[in-house]
Structure formats: structure tokens, C-alpha cells
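Propose amino acids for all 409 sites.
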């Protein structure tokens, strides 16, 4: 633990900063409430920054050779920054020269919670703590840091211990749901017509029931049914379903339990008679709703259940005054149907200014930067589409309406 003065100007010292680092779950407990509040109120609105997500990652989202620690920066008694850290062996230098990262194997974003008014001081103190705790580390990777993260302005005044580089620039879909669903869909007449057609198709199959389950009614006991539906479809065929992967199942079970305990879990479900035909897992972080997983019954493919599920999600989102955005944290082809805009997320790499990191780690970071900056933008779109089709060939893709119709004959 270290203490240093926080200065807002050369003449005014506000509070000393102290950093506390813990490496076990009991040690996390005294910080959980303040951590949850800081992450909940952060401008990024990312569920991945909440302790409910991070603790699930620490328990079930790491490979066996990985370790973790969590650093908490306080200005006086106020928590101003949290950095969950995963300690991984460097692919060349091994455990003695680890590579640190702020995300696990099942986490989309490694963005972190910083108090905006103390972002520079918090980040500097946290990075200094990393050097004290893991003096041999070669660098820190932060995956998919959102464009509005306090991390970016904080880096402008950072000490010179690390070389700052960026690589991947992802654009994930997002929808601002302040307003009305009718005004939103009124801009897209073709979409409204298609939705009406899909609804008529599914209504021919039986009595349709759409459920939005949240608050105390959203519980973990629905997860087995969700997982069974997922395993019965294309994800089960290609081995990507929860039931195909014990680690993923354990992680998502812990995730659902944690968010349900705080009444921040939402289930979106579509039934036809007594048959579950579509379901979606959603997680709340203040004014943002994250959509990490959904699944549907392929026997109803001609009804476009996934689209109807999204319609139900969006309608409910627009109806909630306390919700500002729906954030799938992905970029899917289906989002084009909804004309969803996107937000930028950038991979950030902090490389130690020392001989071994510069020699053995910096080249790999530079190669990623060159790929994302110069090579990937020049790959023709038809090549990317061909590669996506190759990945989704055969059992790796959902059955389409025509295939379901053919099988039913």
C-alpha cells in the first residue's frame, strides 16, 4: 500500500491517495459497496465493470495458470479507482515476467471504473501499485476501452513508467432508447412491415406470450431452461453452448446469481403455447442494459424469433424512463436490420519502459497495431464476408426458414 498527495492544482492538495491491493475474496468484501457504486455511476455504463461481473470472472473466468489481484485507490475515504488485474504468464518470458490484463477469458471489455474528477490521480496511483505488486510485469492490456471512458483523459497526464499504445478499434452496436419506440420505428417503414409479417407467422403456430421478467422475479432457476434451448440449436452443434463448456456454464451461473441477487437481472422470453421459442439474458448497469446472450428454437426459424425477441427488448427499453441505452456489446449482422448506430471501443496497451518488455513484448503489440491500422482496413469486404461464411458453414450456423420448411415435409 502506498500513499501520495492528490493535487488538483500546484497550490491545492485535496486528499492523500492510498492504494489497497487484495488477492482473495475475503479481502474484497470491505470494498464491495463502494466499488459497486463507483462502477454503477461510471459514464461507460458497462456491466463488465461491476463487482458482480468481476468476481464471477475471478472465480470461473480464468485459465488454471492465471492469478488475480484487485487494486483499490482511495482519496481519503472516497474510492476513486478500481483496477481488477489478471496475472498471466508471458508467452515467451513466462511467470517471472507476467503480462497483466484487466479482463478474463469470457469478458468483452476490460474498461475500469475511475472517478472522473480524480481520474488522472487514480490511474497513476494504480499503475504505480502494479509496479510494486508485480515488479517483473512487462505491461498491462486493457481490452475494448469505451470512447467515453475516464481512462483516456487520465492517460494524458500519466507518468512515464509505461509506453502507451492502442491497437484494435471495435465498433459495437448501441441504441439510445430515450424517446418512444413508435417514433423510432416510424423512421423505417419496411421494418414495421416485416415485423408485422413475422408476428402473423408466429401467431399461426399457437398462442404467443412475451415475458419481460426482472426485479425479484428474475432468478437463476430459469438458466437451465435457457441453456437447454441453446444446446438444442446451432451453438450446441458447433460446441459453443453453455452445456458444452463447463467453465462457461459455471461463469454464467455465477454471473446470473450475482446480478439476480441485486435485482439487476432481466430475462426476455417468448413462448408459443407451452413451448419456449426464444430467450435472452440481459444485465443492468444503471441506465444501460447489456445483452450478453440470447437463443431461440430453430423449429420456429421462419418466424424470425430473434427479431421478435429484439423487438420486445427494444419496446420495453423505450418504455423505461430509467433506461438510456441498450448495449449488446457486439456487432452482429442482425443489428443492421434495426439500423443500430455504434460506439467505439479501443484496445489499450501499456508497455513497461524497460529492456525485456521492449525486446520481447513491444514487437507483438506493434504487430497488432500495424494489423488493425494498416492491414485490416485494406482487406476487401467480400473477403471478410467469405471468411464469416466459412466460419458459419454447416452445423456452425442456425437453420434458416427454408431449411426448417424442407425438414418438415
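Proposal:
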Amino acid at each position: 500500500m502506498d500513499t501520495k498527495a492528490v493535487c488538483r492544482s500546484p497550490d491545492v492538495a485535496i486528499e492523500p491517495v492510498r492504494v489497497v491491493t487484495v488477492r482473495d475474496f475475503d479481502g474484497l468484501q470491505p470494498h464491495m459497496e463502494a466499488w459497486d457504486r463507483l462502477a454503477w455511476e461510471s459514464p461507460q455504463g458497462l456491466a463488465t465493470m461491476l463487482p458482480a461481473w468481476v468476481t464471477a470472472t475471478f472465480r470461473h473466468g480464468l485459465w488454471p495458470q492465471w492469478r488475480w489481484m484487485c487494486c483499490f485507490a482511495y482519496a481519503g475515504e472516497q474510492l476513486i479507482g478500481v483496477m481488477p488485474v489478471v496475472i498471466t504468464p508471458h508467452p515467451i518470458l513466462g511467470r517471472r515476467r507476467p503480462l497483466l490484463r484487466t479482463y478474463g477469458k469470457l469478458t468483452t471489455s476490460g474498461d475500469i471504473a475511475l472517478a472522473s474528477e480524480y481520474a488522472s490521480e487514480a490511474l497513476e496511483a494504480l499503475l504505480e501499485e502494479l509496479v510494486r505488486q508485480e515488479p517483473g510485469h512487462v505491461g498491462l492490456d486493457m481490452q475494448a476501452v469505451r470512447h467515453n471512458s475516464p481512462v483516456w483523459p487520465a492517460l494524458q497526464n500519466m507518468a512515464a513508467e509505461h509506453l502507451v499504445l492502442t491497437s484494435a478499434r471495435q465498433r459495437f452496436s448501441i441504441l439510445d432508447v430515450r424517446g418512444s419506440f413508435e417514433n423510432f420505428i416510424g423512421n423505417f417503414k419496411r421494418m414495421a412491415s416485416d415485423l408485422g409479417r413475422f408476428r402473423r407467422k408466429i401467431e399461426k403456430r399457437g398462442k404467443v406470450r412475451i415475458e419481460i421478467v426482472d426485479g425479484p422475479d428474475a432468478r437463476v432457476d430459469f438458466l437451465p431452461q435457457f441453456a437447454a434451448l441453446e444446446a438444442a440449436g446451432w451453438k450446441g452443434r458447433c460446441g459453443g453452448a453453455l452445456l458444452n463448456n463447463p467453465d462457461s456454464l459455471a461463469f454464467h451461473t455465477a454471473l446470473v446469481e450475482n446480478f439476480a441477487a441485486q435485482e439487476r437481472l432481466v430475462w426476455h422470453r417468448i413462448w408459443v403455447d407451452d413451448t419456449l421459442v426464444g430467450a435472452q439474458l440481459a444485465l443492468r448497469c444503471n441506465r444501460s442494459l447489456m445483452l450478453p446472450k440470447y437463443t431461440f428454437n430453430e423449429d420456429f426459424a421462419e418466424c424470425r424469433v430473434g427479431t421478435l425477441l429484439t423487438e420486445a427488448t427494444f419496446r420495453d427499453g423505450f418504455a423505461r424512463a430509467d433506461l438510456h441505452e441498450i448495449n449488446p456489446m457486439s456487432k452482429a449482422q442482425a443489428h443492421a436490420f434495426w439500423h443500430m448506430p455504434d460506439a467505439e471501443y479501443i484496445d489499450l496497451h501499456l508497455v513497461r519502459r524497460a529492456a525485456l518488455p521492449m525486446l520481447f513484448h513491444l514487437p507483438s503489440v506493434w504487430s497488432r497495431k500495424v494489423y488493425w491500422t494498416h492491414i485490416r482496413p485494406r482487406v476487401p469486404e467480400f473477403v471478410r464476408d467469405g471468411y464469416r461464411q466459412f466460419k458459419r458453414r454447416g452445423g456452425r450456423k442456425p437453420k434458416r426458414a427454408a431449411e426448417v420448411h424442407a425438414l418438415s415435409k
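Confidence is low (pLDDT under 50) at residues 404-409. The chain has two domains: 3-171+344-375, 175-340.
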